Amino acid sequence: MNPMLNIATRAARQAGRVLMRYYERTEQLTIHDKGRHDFVTEVDRAAELTIVKELRSKFPQHAILAEESGRQGDSEFVWIIDPLDGTTNYLHGFPQFAVSIGLECRGKLELGVVYDPLSEELFTAARGQGAHLNDRRIRVAKRPSLDGALIGTGFPFREHRHTDRYLGMLKTVMQEAAGIRRAGSAALDLAYVAAGRLDGFWEIGLAPWDLAAGAVLITEAGGLVSDLTGGRDYLDSGNLVAANPRLHQVLVDRLRPSLEGKPAG
Ligand code: IPD
Ligand code: CA
Ligand code: CA
Q1: Count of alpha carbons within 13 Å of 233, Cβ hemisphere only?
Q2: When you count CB atoms within 10 A of the terminal residue's CB, does the N or C end of the chain come out lower?
Q3: Strand bridging mode 240-243 / 38-41
Q4: Which contiguous run of DSSP H or E holds residue 9?
Q5: How far apart are CA 41 and CA 236, in angstroms?
Q6: In contact, 77 and 105? CB cutoff 8 Å
Q7: Ligand 1 in contact with 54 (CB < 6 A)?
Q8: Could you tell me the pLDDT band of residue 190, with boundaries at 50, 70 and 90?
Q9: Ligand 1 within 6 A of 4 CB?
Q10: Which is the closest atom of ligand 1 to the Cα of 185?
Q11: Stretch 157-167: mean pLDDT, rounded?
Q12: Could you say which ligand is closest to the alpha carbon of residue 86?
């Protein structure tokens, strides 16, 4: 395995152990509100510290962008970390959450690790080296249209200014797809697209740590990731659509009218 990926994997597994230690007794955790419906606990912070320590010990020169502690250091290498993606699920004992670690270098996403500590599924990818689930190579699904497709999404529950545009998108996709899932961890949703479990995915208003690792997984699994206009600005805009190349174009075309504020048909 790529040595940097190896270290990122080790950090993700260590953080996963922290998450599992508290999972059966989440009622004892102190929950702080970061914003409306935006929670953080000592578990998020402890898991993040574990990852940061591991990466810092091996790559002291690299910068870090982590959800709970923000940006540290200045380097062309930036580790982008979500120690617990799916905090609301975690706090409810809803078994869908993950650790997400991505690496960006000079504006390019180089590698990604998404680890589900409950199922012990480890999704990994390095640019040019393919995507894997545990030791098995994974590919995106081949379905070329929304007909029969299972599509993942996330609701913009924090930013209500997105609600109307989002509901237009949901209506359009719902009328054509076989099913839509909102499981509550964008990082895992993206890993599932890479593994072909979901045919496609879209969400608006994500943060870089929600999507950096998942975007590498999908690209390396043969899929396309873009912002909602089909452009490359997904990491900064937080608006993302992903699928195999044909379905990706279909999704971009279907989502565009709502993005532009036109009513869904
Ligand atoms: C959230 C999850 C969720 C997505 C939100 C994210 P968090 O991350 O990925 O699926 O819809 O936009 O903020 O807060 O649980 O790390
Ligand atoms: Ca997140
Ligand atoms: Ca988080």
Answers
A1: 7
A2: C
A3: unpaired
A4: helix 3-23
A5: 26
A6: yes
A7: no
A8: very high
A9: no
A10: 10
A11: 85
A12: 1
Domain ranges of the chain: 3-137, 150-259
CA–CA gap between residue 162 and residue 261 (Å, rounded): 10
Q: What is the pLDDT of residues 222-231, one digit of tens each?
A: 999 999 999 9
Is the C-beta atom of 184 inside 6 A of ligand 1? yes
For the Cβ of 68 lying below 6 angstroms from any atom of ligand 1, the answer is: no
CATH label, 150-259, candidates 3.40.190.80, 2.60.120.560, 3.40.50.20, 1.25.40.10: 3.40.190.80
* CB 189, CB 217: distance < 8 Å: no
The owner of tokens 């962008």 is 65
Distance between CA 249 and CA 243 in Å, rounded? 9
pLDDT mean over 214-239: 97
Strand positions, DSSP E, 16-134: 31-35, 38-41, 63-66, 70-72, 77-85, 98-105, 108-116, 121-126, 131-133
The predicted pLDDT at position 145 comes to 98
Class of 3-137 in CATH: alpha beta
